[in-house]
Amino acid sequence: MSGIVAPATRRRMSVSEESVPALSRGTKLRLDETRQRWVLLVPERVMAPDEIAVEVLKLCDGQRSVAEIIEQLAAAYAAPREEIAGDVIAMLQDLADSGFLVEGKKP
Amino acid sequence: MSPTLSDASPVLADAHDGLAILEGQSVAQAYGIPLAVLLELTHRCPLQCGYCSNPVEMERAGNELTTDEWKKVLTELAEIGVLQVHFSGGEPSVRKDLVELVRHANDLGLYTNLITSAVLITRERLTEIADAGLAHIQISFQANDPVLANRIGGFKNGHAKKLEVAQWSRELGLPLTVNAVMHRQNLHQLREMIGLAVALDADRIEVANVQYYGWALKNRAALMPTIEQIDEATSIVEEERARLRGILDIDFVVPDYYALRPKKCMGGWGRQFFNITPSGKILPCHAAETITELDFESVRSNHSIAWIWQNSDAFNRYRGTGWMPEPCQSCAFKEVDYGGCRCQAFALTGSAGNTDPACHLSPLHEAIFKTAEREASEGGDRFIYRNFAGGTLEPEL
User: Fold this and answer.
1) How far is the CA of B38 from the CAs of B57, B111, B159, in angstroms?
2) Shortest CA gap B368–chain A (Å)
């Protein structure tokens, strides 16, 4: 009907401790020199990540697993791992649902 | 440091993702430079959509900024703190220098978005554009059914060409937004258009209801949806958003003719956005040239872009709330919607300084709503096609 050769089968990314998140191609984390803050540039919008979101986003390099990200943050903020884990996974799932994250390369 | 991620900052929009949509300065006395700017490279376009937001009096090719002028504009935008540029038109790919402009913007660190009808783009050219650093592409679709789509756009085989370019975009790894401009003659295909976006592996769909000024006002009788169509569209969007969570982002704005309160147009006049026209005029909104009582400063003047943003009469005329008449001036929502849309006030009341008639408190709201309802049920379906000759009536259907 619409002439599409191969309909896409995109699936929702389900974030777990095994996921290896990376920023999607249209998502760019940049330091905004003019306003002296980090921004997340995404299609048709500019997002303002808070301080911890910036730390999490910087770790989404397509190499580290979510488990490694959680451990790094738990150490950096001297906070209990289980508390950090729930928050990080919830944050990453929301970022993935907004289309800002993709599954990176498994090591 | 806060032990949880969710309460770390007062700018959180959401309990989880730690992100807020960053808006331009909200401090009334200092209007900060916008984060994003729309660049209309040209008014030339092979399509003839009757709802085009370009002014009816379009800019001829001879008046367009040169490549060097656009590059200078891009450099100046990056220097003053703009982060995102949207290349639009008309059809931006009509410009032979599009690749060069995208590359220049990308080299400056600007996030580049291409808003295109796609019908002129070859695979080779798209590859060049992607290689130049394009961050995102937005392709318009006029309907799901090719016959209807090509009739709305007034361009033979346009729909098939768009499908092709959308697929190439994804093959090249470009994030894709499907732009679906909706009105009475295609709202019945909304669900199929969302399905089309999914099939094209798009990241987003913008379900954009027509805004009635410029060409769209000329074509209002052929475009105005019924209230039943809007109600149905709203429930389709709700269902599809739930079904497609994490797969397709659906952007949807209810047309304000059928709302009780006006839209916060452009986030407020001169607050967080500007647009540069093909000849270099700087406008508070892409439709602002329809307000013929305003004069707009150009990048070709002796003034800097920042000066024009801060000081020009056109930007200051409807900034903030001081200009507002009653019932806006004493309204509790005046800093929520900033008085709605100036272009609509001008188009429907003859003065851009009047209350936007989309607001139910406007003395003209009732009359205009009734007109819209009547046009939706009685209006003919023939379009006045957009062109440089001032429009051509579609042949008998």
Assistant:
1) 19, 12, 25
2) 32
pLDDT value at B1 more than 90: no
Q: For the ranges B51-65, B215-229, B253-267, which has the lowest average pLDDT?
A: B253-267
Say if CB B18 and CB B12 are below 8 A apart.
Answer: yes
Interface of A with B in 53-82 (CB under 8 A): 53, 56, 77, 79-80
Can you tell me which residue has the tokens 């290896």?
A: A20
The bridge status of strand B273-276 relative to strand B36-40 is parallel
By the 8 A CB rule, do B353 and B339 touch? no
Strand boundaries in B59-196, DSSP class E: 84-88, 111-116, 136-141, 176-182
Interface touch B249/A98, C-beta < 8 Å: yes
3-class DSSP assignment, residue B234: helix
Set of chain A residues whose Cβ sits within 8 Å of the Cβ of B14: 94
| ipTM field | 0.89
Comparing C-alpha atoms, which of B158, B155, B95, B159 is closest to residue B129? B95
Question: Model's pTM, two decimal places?
Answer: 0.91
Closest-approach residue (CA) in chain B for A80: B3
For residue B259, what are the contacts with CB-CB under 8 A and spacing of at least 6? Answer: B358
> Which DSSP helix (H) or strand (E) runs through B21?
strand B19-21
Residue B351 vs residues A25, B296, B338, B361: alpha-carbon distances, Å: 44, 17, 16, 17
How high is the pLDDT of residue A5?
57
Q: What is the pLDDT of residues B127-170, one digit of tens each?
A: 999 999 999 999 999 999 999 999 999 999 999 999 999 999 99
